[in-house]
Amino acid sequence: MVPKLIHGKSHEDERGTLFYNNDFDASVIKRIYVIENQNTDLVRAWRGHEIEQRWFSAMAGSFAIQLIAIDNWDRPDKKSERLEFVLDSQKLEILHIPAGYVSSMQSLSEGSKLLVMADYSMGALKDDYRYEVNYFE
């Protein structure tokens, strides 16, 4: 499975704007949380899951997201291909990150907030992999 960007839409009338994403199926979501980076220089990288899936959506501001498919969890290829996405809160896009990927995220504007959804409850799995920020070339 490959990452997929699920596009949101909006409707505007005299009352304001309604943002929606009717193509997102949230039935497998078990938990949610929000990440707000300390500043736009900080890059949270590289964390991923062999089994768990994640969904990201910018709730405020915007984020640059990079993903890498992991070929070997003990010693991943340092030259793995990166996929790049930008999530903007004005579009209510949802990025599906299937199992088998690590992610990097950076706020593109101050005060940006990233909603993270996962398909397993906290502590249900031992499936957390982390690599140094400069591990991948």
The CATH topology is Jelly Rolls
Radius of gyration: 15 Å
Q: What is the domain tally?
A: 1
Distance between the termini: 24 Å
**Low confidence ranges:** none
Q: Helix-strand pattern, N to C?
A: EEEEEEEEEEEE
Instruction: Supply the CATH architecture.
Output: Sandwich
CATH level-1 class: Mainly Beta
Mean pLDDT: 97
**Taking strands numbered 1, 2, ... along the chain, how are they ordered across the largest sheet?**
1-9-6-11-4
What is the count of DSSP helices, taking H or I runs of 4+ residues?
A: 0
The main sheet comes to: 5 strands, antiparallel
Q: How many E strands?
A: 12
Question: What best-fitting shape do the alpha-carbon axes yield?
Answer: globular
Report the sheet-strand fraction: over 45%
What is the assigned CATH homologous superfamily? Jelly Rolls
Supply the helix-strand structural class: mainly beta
Q: What helical percentage do the residues reach?
A: under 10%
Give keywords.
single chain; about 140 residues; mainly beta; Jelly Rolls; 5-stranded antiparallel β-sheet; about 50% strand
Folded structure, characterized:
The chain has strands at 4-6, 9-13, 16-20, 31-35, 43-49, 54-60, 62-69, 82-88, 94-97, 101-107, 113-118, 129-130. The protein has 137 residues and is mainly beta. It has a single domain (4-130), classed as Jelly Rolls (Sandwich), CATH 2.60.120.
